[in-house]
Design goal:
Length: about 450
């Protein structure tokens, strides 16, 4: 019977790989044990009920916080308000509606047919043959239509001009304080709330039209009296309720976001699994932003259905609504995507089996890339990055958060690009970081 020889020793590389796998397994077991001990010490039926209540309240308050912040910014920041209404001056539907309204107001106060008849009577008194006078009277309707077309053409040209757009912006900037009247119910000169209508005064536009018509040779424009016409931009039986709601949102615009975050923090503090509670809360915030977007779409349909087409054409009403809610949509997309990214980040860094396996697979992939691209000594830079990799990761996340908070109006695209940049920066750190030779089993 032969004596078996000594077993061959494993290669250093295989031994290092086995040690790394064993360390990873032990770390996972320790993390699970710690998480289990935390969960065991945080029991009680009341804890689940309280956490669920806090998360429900936070989910309700998050969309209100977005709307309240938008309302406060629109009223308190002139530049934001002007940025909101400026596109309306170049919107074809709004331009057409204003041109139709101004033309109608002019002809409501300028009786072209009567002026033509006065001219015929004056000519008849000076010896105009009766047959010719009758013929001129018969031309009153075509002449009136021709004058109306001429006036509408001039008004349309004025409304489509750069001068009108500049005047629109300047008028809105000067009258920014009047925006409060739209939701507070106070009357004013440029913007007026009357019953269930929100109106804009067209007097300045009509006066500009009178000057343009006179310069074009239409002396009848001098007979147009001072007009205090209104252009209805909103009409709804819910205006009064909207005004009451706005007052509440205006007072709460600075409180609601803080309260929502406090509720989330309290739920995380009381949750049996803090990380799991945060992931659920962040996903609920993202979901509430989706519901807010759906609500805005439904409100748009209700608004368009209630606006009388003789007051404001549907296309113009849609343009007004879309301009008003543009920055609400911008905010909800940014907030929703931000919390979604936070939820994913919290889950990936967790101690569970799946995120641990995901991180381990990513680490092994990075090491393979390093082995193929870098040979020999890792160098002082690689070792330094490996040693301080955790503070460096935190620094990248802090810089991203500061960048988000420093942007006046972050968008969903900004959050997405920032997320990709952060992911790329973290990937670069992982590729640069190199274990010291001793840790690599070399």
């Amino acid at each position: 019977m032969s004596t078996p020889g000594p077993e061959p020793e494993p290669a250093p590389a295989d031994e290092a790989e086995q040690l790394r796998l064993e360390v990873a397994r032990l770390r996972e077991e320790v993390a699970r044990a710690q998480d289990g001990s935390r969960s065991t010490g945080r029991g009680g039926w009341w804890r689940t009920a309280v956490v669920a209540t806090l998360l429900a309240l936070m989910t309700l308050l998050a969309p209100l916080a977005v709307v309240a912040t938008w309302a406060d910014d629109e009223v308190g920041d002139t530049d934001r308000y002007v940025e909101t209404v400026t596109p309306l001056a170049s919107d074809p539907a709004v331009q057409a509606a204003i041109a139709d309204r101004v033309t109608a107001e002019i002809f409501a106060r300028l009786d072209v047919r009567a002026v033509i008849q006065q001219a015929v009577d004056a000519l008849r008194s000076r010896g105009l043959p009766p047959r010719v006078a009758v013929g001129l009277s018969a031309l009153a309707t075509p002449l009136e239509n021709g004058v109306r077309d001429f006036v509408h053409k001039e008004v349309s040209a004025l409304v489509a001009s750069d001068d009108f757009q500049a005047a629109w912006v300047e008028a809105n900037r000067t009258a920014h304080g009047e925006l409060v009247a739209v939701l507070s119910g106070r009357t004013s000169g440029a913007v007026e709330v009357s019953g269930d209508k929100v109106n804009i005064n067209l007097a300045a536009i009509i006066n500009a039209t009178k000057s343009r018509l006179s310069s074009a040779g239409l002396q009848l424009a001098d007979r147009i009296p001072t007009v205090d016409a209104q252009f209805t931009i909103f009409q709804s039986a819910d205006v009064v309720r909207a005004q009451r709601g706005f007052r509440l949102l205006e007072l709460s615009s600075r409180v609601l976001p803080v309260v929502a975050l406090v509720l989330l923090g309290a739920a995380v503090a009381l949750g049996r699994s803090r990380r799991g509670t945060f992931v659920v809360g962040a996903l609920l915030v993202s979901g509430s932003m989706v519901l807010l977007g759906v609500g805005l779409n439904l409100a748009r349909e209700l608004y368009l259905a209630e606006v009388p087409t003789d007051q404001l054409p549907t296309a113009a009403a849609a343009a007004v609504y879309d301009a008003v809610v543009l920055y609400i949509r911008t905010s909800l997309r940014a907030v929703g995507l931000l919390f979604l990214v936070a939820a994913v980040l919290a889950w990936v860094t967790g101690p569970g089996a799946r995120p641990t396996a995901l991180r381990g697979g990513g680490r092994r992939l990075v090491e393979r890339v390093q082995d193929r691209t870098v040979d020999g000594d890792p160098g002082p830079v690689g070792v330094a990055v490996w040693t301080y990799r955790t503070p460096l990761r935190i620094a990248v996340l802090v810089v991203a958060l500061v960048a988000y908070l420093s942007v006046t109006r972050p968008t969903g695209a900004f959050v997405l690009v920032s997320t990709l940049v952060v992911a790329l920066a973290l990937l670069v750190l992982e590729l640069v970081a190199r274990r010291p030779a001793l840790d690599r089993g070399q």
